[in-house]
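Reviewers of the previous submission asked for a worked example of the structure-prediction workflow described in the proposal, so we include one complete record here. The input consisted solely of the amino acid sequence. No template or homolog information was supplied to the procedure at any stage.
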Amino acid sequence: MSSSLTQPPSGTIRTLLDERARSGGVAIVFPETSDELTWADLRDAAKVVASDLTARGLSKGESVAILQPNGREGVVAFYGCLYGGFRATMINLAAGPDAISYCLEHSEAKIAFVHASQTELFEGAALEGTQFVPVANTATETELFPLAPEDHALLMYTSGTTGRPKGVLHSHASLLAGGWTTAVAHRLTTEDRGFCVLPIYHINGLCVTVISALVSGGSISMVSKFSASRFWEQAAQAEVTWFSVVPTIISHLLHGSPMPDADTKRRIRFGRSASSALAIETQQGFESRFGIGIVETMGLTETAAQILSNPLERSLQKIGSPGTAYGNEARIADPDQNPCPPEVEGEIQVRGPNVMLGYLKNPEATTGTFTGDWLRTGDLGRMDKDGFVYVTGRLKELIIKGGENIAPREIDEALYTHADVVEAAAFARPCKTYGERVEAAVRLCEGSQASADELISICIERVGKFKAPERVHILNDLPKGPSGKIQRMKLAGLISEPAE
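From that input alone, the workflow returned the following structure tokens.
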């Protein structure tokens, strides 16, 4: 099976995993341990876990919490839950005890697969009624539940930067469609090997890399976490042909990684960026230094990751845009939910087979997120005559200064033009005069002598004095979610306001 498919795979994760096992080949390699799983190994291990969960008396569709970093145990736990007809509930290990407690309680998970490194975290967050069990490795003869494409497969909680996290529900069908959108856009085949450096408890790492390999019949290389110093070495060792990362990782590689060898550069067909907007200067700098093209994309937890992608061919890409719809439909809608004409700003909306079932136990939020069968992303953008979408901001992140809407991304882009800026995020601060004023936070590369005044001057030159930040805060690090996406909504609360 390859990206020549004209529609998502039919059936369930179980039926496709069985098909891969019959076809043979390697599924996952782990460079850090020199371990590997063939598709047959993975299916057999998943079946053992599925049988064990069934024998424990869980009902079909029940949540099973997974507190696992990237690795063999976590992948087997994930596939085992789905193979058995249970709801894999991926817990964000960076969320903190309170958020994890909420997710465990809200999901009603009775069973949790907890990695040895996460035992203390689990014990500090677990509620009475959630049992910590090992990932089974001994077969139990148990008849598994029958499965259908519409059955629940995944429960993944949003980062919850504004209020309680929402539990996004995906079916077997929408998960497979999510992996298919990636396989189609990037023409993945059985010969491709992806590089999984993003956590699989985030939708990007899970669907874009892991599920796309299941759909395409290719393979992946998985490491426990991203390392700028070892990235190219690990990519070479596993002979990867593509990778999916986020803009902060691209920036860290640009500013702090050694050069890949010639064979690695030749082997890698493309790198892929998602989760937040990629600054034009960062993309151009990366491609110039490493000679590897970056394909900018866009995705959501609610859409099993990808909704938009640029073409693979650089001549067809539009830099600054996350591309056009692949495997689903996208549109720009006005406040009355009517389609906008080309180049008119509105809300980005999407519909297709990869869209979630809804939010668990939250019908009000589910209803508010849909207009008909269109999912409202909450992102602002415009679409050109060729169908390329340009993201201009988040509805919730807009800075409203003196009644004028200012998109933070515009200021981010200006800051990234300075060669020493590794991370940047503009944000709003309450202001008596204008209602809100613009500030920004940056992380600079090691040894940089750039000053806040210098960065403000660049912004004034690029976006004008009114939009430029009044203050730029130079930090050691910016708050980020599990995928590495900068959480700008947290900045005002984390950075104390200087005295006037």
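The chain is about 30% helix and 25% strand. We consider this example representative of the routine output the project will generate in years two and three.
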